[in-house]
Amino acid sequence: MNGDEILAVVSVAGAFFVFAIMVASMGAAGKRRHELDKLRLDVLKQSLQHPAIDSVTHAELLRVLSRDHEAARRPWTERIGKHTGALRVLWFGLSWALFIVSTGVLIAGELRWLRGVNSGVVLPLAIVGFAMVTMPFAWSEMRARRDAVADRR
Fold first, then answer.
1. I need a labelling partner for 28 at 20 to 30 A (CA). Which of 37, 51, 66, 117 fits?
2. Taking a C-beta distance cutoff of 8 angstroms, is the pair 106, 119 a contact?
């Protein structure tokens, strides 16, 4: 393996490692949030069953439960969308850099400005970078179309 191939392998492995860490941390945070939500619902259930509760408090507890139920029915993309501003910027920045750098290296290799560029490695990186850049836009477009169809019903 020459230096360029090692760099490409390290880049791909590094990107995969960062992605795996992000997924694992999001999974752990989701599990923690699920446990807290379950505990909260148990407390609300016990409060609703308490015999000394008045009708106003009972109605308020039911309103809170219905709001939680509606929030849980939303798609996961909407639920995490409010809290991931920094992750969106990081995702877009990394994917844009991957796309631009790998495309630039690919073009420079084809123009013979760089020697030893393996287009079999760099081209898939450019494609993955492009897919990563366009994925958030595709998600928001699909969500907008789904909401438009739901509004027509």
1. 66
2. yes
> How many residues in the chain?
153
Q: Report if pTM > 0.85.
A: no
Which one-letter amino acid corresponds to residue 96? W
Please say whether the dihedral angle defined by the alpha carbons of residues 35, 37, 40 and 42, taken in this order, is positive or negative. Answer: negative
- The packing angle between helices 3-49 and 119-152, to 10°, is 30
Q: Which domain holds residue 120?
A: 85-153
Q: Specify whether 54 is located in the same domain as 12.
A: yes
Burial 117-129 (b: 16+ CB within 10 A, else e): beeebbeebbebb
